């Protein structure tokens, strides 16, 4: 694929295709979401299927119909639970609006034997790919977690709904091709709600993030990196066994090796890529030298070989980074510069040069703030989450100096 495009972040400009219905196999398909405590509170409303259908019809949005059971992950088009913690169950009904290509749900509450609609939400899509009732914002606050499947290319949109006596708070969790729940506050209150996600790039390549939500902010959940990204390593090794000239696969393999703590393996992989580049053989999805050099420096930092990392990073900060054949050609250069400066901050932190470390952490932050002012991170909930995931680690490093 010669035509470049923005890295995942510029999917922020979200022009995902709404075509295809089956989700792609992704690196995290090897990882199983943890078994959580029972979500559904025992039904004390005493409604059977026919009662629900009759009741749902009274509150159905105009031109909408109840969603087919094979279009929802639970195989049930309604859900009964005490959503707001008042010890009385609410009724959640899922519907479809074919005319507007939407799938959604509404919530009915029984107050003094009278049913009322207290909430309604719909999103363009084909079905409901996730439905959980679990703690998201904290141990004592369960949320209704809903994934609206759009298509194979576009993935799904994910939301958490916090129902209280004061109303409903919607928490946007982004649009992703894959969404795995890795931890909840019940499992470990301090770790918060942690989820692993991927966004489709090209071919069989996905960019992965592990994200923590503490009830108000998103950040990178680095304490979950090792086990998660080791599975990604297996995925990309298998991918490269079919086509070793695919430089984008190499890029994500090396990134995964680094995040899994496999620094020596990452350096070996970088050397393999350089051999492929030097062979002058036709390549698939070319990725620029600078991208692999940044990864090499990152791996060297992981091995505490700070002098070698510094030499690479200082050189990179002084040269033009991109070429027209690069898969990331249209990615704003500030993304690469931000990573170069961050890794330089890591170098000087490792060398106990706090002033120099602070200087480069601030430079890294400045690059991302520049992109933010230009509107790169303001197009949708996914880009805003990624912005926090990128910026918050830098802020934490500055706080710790």
- The string of secondary-structure elements, in order, is HEEEEEEEEEEEEEHHHHHHHH
Largest sheet: 5 strands, antiparallel
Shape field? elongated
Helix/strand-derived class? alpha+beta
Q: The CATH topology of the domain at 223-401 is what?
A: Serine Threonine Protein Phosphatase 5, Tetratricopeptide repeat
Question: Would you write up a description of this structure?
Answer:
The protein has helices at residues 49-59, 225-242, 247-259, 263-278, 289-302, 306-316, 333-350, 354-373, 381-400, and strands at residues 65-66, 78-81, 90-97, 102-111, 114-124, 127-138, 141-151, 155-164, 167-176, 178-183, 193-202, 205-213, 218-220. With 401 residues, it is of the alpha+beta class. It has a domain at 223-401: Alpha Horseshoe (Serine Threonine Protein Phosphatase 5, Tetratricopeptide repeat). The strands form three sheets. Strands 1, 2, 3, 4 and 5 form a five-stranded antiparallel β-sheet that branches. Strand 12 (205-213) and strand 13 form a beta hairpin. The radius of gyration is 23 Å and the shape is elongated. The two termini are 43 Å apart.
Quickly list its features.
401 residues, alpha+beta, Serine Threonine Protein Phosphatase 5, Tetratricopeptide repeat, 5-stranded antiparallel β-sheet, 9 helices, 35% helix, elongated
């Amino acid at each position: 694929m010669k035509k470049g495009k923005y890295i995942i972040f510029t999917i922020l400009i979200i022009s995902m295709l709404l075509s295809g219905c089956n989700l792609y196999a992704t690196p995290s398909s090897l990882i199983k979401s943890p078994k959580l405590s029972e979500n559904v509170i025992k039904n004390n409303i005493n409604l059977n299927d026919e009662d629900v259908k009759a009741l749902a019809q009274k509150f159905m949005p105009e031109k909408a119909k109840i969603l087919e059971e094979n279009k929802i992950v639970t195989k049930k088009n309604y859900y009964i639970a005490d959503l707001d913690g008042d010890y009385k169950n609410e009724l959640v009904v899922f519907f479809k609006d074919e005319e507007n290509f939407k799938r959604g749900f509404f919530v009915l509450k029984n107050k003094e034997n009278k049913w009322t609609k207290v909430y309604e939400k719909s999103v363009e899509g084909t079905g409901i790919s996730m439905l959980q009732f679990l703690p998201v914002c904290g141990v004592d606050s369960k949320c209704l977690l809903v994934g609206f499947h759009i298509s194979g290319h576009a993935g799904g949109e994910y939301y958490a709904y916090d129902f209280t006596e004061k109303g409903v708070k919607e928490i946007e969790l982004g649009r992703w091709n894959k969404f795995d729940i890795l931890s909840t506050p019940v499992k470990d209150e301090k770790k918060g709600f942690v989820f692993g996600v991927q966004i489709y790039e090209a071919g069989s390549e996905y960019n992965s993030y592990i994200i923590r939500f503490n009830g108000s902010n998103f950040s990178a959940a680095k304490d979950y990196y090792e086990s998660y990204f080791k599975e990604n390593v297996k995925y990309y090794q298998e991918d490269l066994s079919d086509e070793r000239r695919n430089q984008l696969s190499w890029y994500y393999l090396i990134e995964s090796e680094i995040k899994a703590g496999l620094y020596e393996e990452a350096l070996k992989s970088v050397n393999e890529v350089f051999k492929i580049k030097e062979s002058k053989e036709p390549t698939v999805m070319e990725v620029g030298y600078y991208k692999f050099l940044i990864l090499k420096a990152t791996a060297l930092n992981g091995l505490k070989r700070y002098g070698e990392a510094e030499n690479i990073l200082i050189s990179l900060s002084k040269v033009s980074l991109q070429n027209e054949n690069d898969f990331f050609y249209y990615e704003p250069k500030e993304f690469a510069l931000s990573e170069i400066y961050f890794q330089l901050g890591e170098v000087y932190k490792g060398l106990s040069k706090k002033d120099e470390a602070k200087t480069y952490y601030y430079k890294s932050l400045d690059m991302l703030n520049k992109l933010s002012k230009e509107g790169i991170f303001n197009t949708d909930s996914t880009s805003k989450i990624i912005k926090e995931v990128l910026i918050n680690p830098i802020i934490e490093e500055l706080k710790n100096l």
